[in-house]
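Worked example 3 (structure in, sequence out).
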């Protein structure tokens, strides 16, 4: 998975977020704390 630096003004969907959970368990918590909006389903 790769990320582009900058501001995304649209919707971004992550598929297979299990890999993020394994490598960076606090990613979505940190992302939300920095002002992002993530809903984990």
């Amino acid at each position: 998975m790769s990320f582009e630096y900058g501001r995304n003004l649209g919707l971004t969907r992550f598929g297979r977020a299990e890999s993020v959970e394994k490598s960076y368990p606090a990613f979505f918590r940190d992302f939300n704390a920095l002002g992002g909006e993530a809903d984990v389903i």
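Notes: The mean pLDDT is 75. Residues 30 and 36 are 9 Å apart (CA to CA).
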